[in-house]
Design a protein that fits this description.
about 65% helix, globular, AhpD-like, 2 domains, CMD-like, mainly alpha, 10 helices, about 180 residues
């Protein structure tokens, strides 16, 4: 059972009620809305992570799933349908859920190992970083780190506040999630 009440547009403070009314009715939004002054900036940053980064949407989702697998199952459950819509396969999802990264391409494997290290304690080995740097630009590396760190921070909040599960909203429920590869240039 959650440690904080879930706000609704009717019970939320006026500063966030109208914004909350526009969001999918998910516990994560209903929980974070308690942080009245941070709620909108947090949504904007989360929207940037889901829509405005240069990294491939499938890679973004795999990184989120890795964090969810290791830190908060809520994130896993919410992002599996989005990963599938972004081009992931059931086989990839199942392998990741088992922690088996051998079937992933070298870039995805390096990003997933990096995300796992970030979740564990933040210590990334020189070998793992070299593998990541061989596949991605510095911008992409920072974006992978931002994605993992954002979802890790959220995972820790959800765990500490004992968020209840929600049915997956999927890509239709989170329309901000970009599903296509970013255009070159």
């Amino acid at each position: 059972m959650a440690r904080v009440t879930y706000l609704t547009p009717e019970t939320a403070p006026p500063a966030v009620a109208s914004t909350l009314a526009k969001m999918p009715q998910l516990h994560v939004f209903q929980m974070v809305a308690h942080a009245e002054t941070a709620f909108r900036p947090w949504l904007k940053f989360g929207g940037a992570v889901l829509a405005d980064l240069a990294i491939d949407p499938l890679l973004r989702e795999l990184v989120i799933l890795q964090v969810g697998r290791l830190a908060a199952r809520y994130e896993w459950e919410q992002h599996v349908p989005i990963a599938l819509a972004a081009g992931g396969t059931a086989e990839q999802i199942e392998a990741l859920d088992r922690g088996e990264l051998g079937t992933f391409d070298p870039g995805s494997r390096a990003a997933l190992e990096f995300a796992a290290a970030l979740v564990r304690d933040g210590e990334v080995s020189d070998e793992n970083y070299a593998a990541l740097a061989a596949e991605f630009s510095e911008r992409e590396i920072v974006e992978i780190a931002l994605t993992a760190a954002h979802y890790l921070g959220l995972a820790r909040i959800m765990t500490a506040l004992r968020i209840d599960p929600d049915a997956p909203a999927g890509p239709d429920g989170l329309p901000a999630a970009r599903l296509e590869r970013p255009s070159a240039g």
